Amino acid sequence: MYQLIAAVILLISLLQSAARADEPTAPSLALLAQELEPFIKKHYPQASFAFEENTIHFEFNTRKYLIHSTDMMGGWGDAVEEIGPQAPSRNSRLKRQGGVIGNISIRPGAYGGKASLPHVFHHHYFDRLGMAPYSKSLDCHLLVNLSYANDIPPDFEKQFRSILNHFDKYVHAKDSE
Q: Any residues with CB less than 8 A from the CB of 96 and at least 6 apart, and which?
């Protein structure tokens, strides 16, 4: 009896591991991170940059904000604490550059969220670019949030969009590596 139970458990575990082997794994963002890091550091030399297999995060000169938003009926919702970019210094002697914070992750399939992307969301203190570029060849999309202060370097957003809109030049399926 115990041998039969052990055999069934072994069979189930083998079937589960075979099923996991057939599941597609998300492509790595390693080459995209190698392309983005020098671009970010060119405009924000002191920015921190972190990369994990499926996510990229960078930030410079950030702070906590309490952000109020309206609800579906037009009323004010409760404030939500959010990390955002610090505004540039108004004092000409300090010459502090405004901040930036970005999060990029790769997701399977096409974007199916509620927001129409790409779109720039204007918060009182900073702007947020939301993007979800899709690669038909990889059947995945990037989910991108870039928050920036009002002194963003000229052409930064345009070049950032260009790199991410062509992310399949830097991201390849795991099987092709």
A: 61, 86, 88, 89
What's the pLDDT tens digit per position in 53-84?
Answer: 899 999 999 999 888 777 778 788 888 888 99
Q: What is the pTM of this model?
A: 0.79
Per the CB < 8 A criterion, the answer to whether 132 and 103 are in contact is no
Contacts of residue 164, Cβ cutoff 8 Å, sequence gap at least 6: 104, 131, 133, 142, 144
Is 176 in a helix, a strand, or coil?
helix
For 22, the 3-state DSSP assignment is helix
> From the DSSP assignment, how many helices (H) and strands (E) are in the chain?
3, 9
Domain extent listing, the chain: 25-176
The neighbouring-strand residues paired with 156 are none
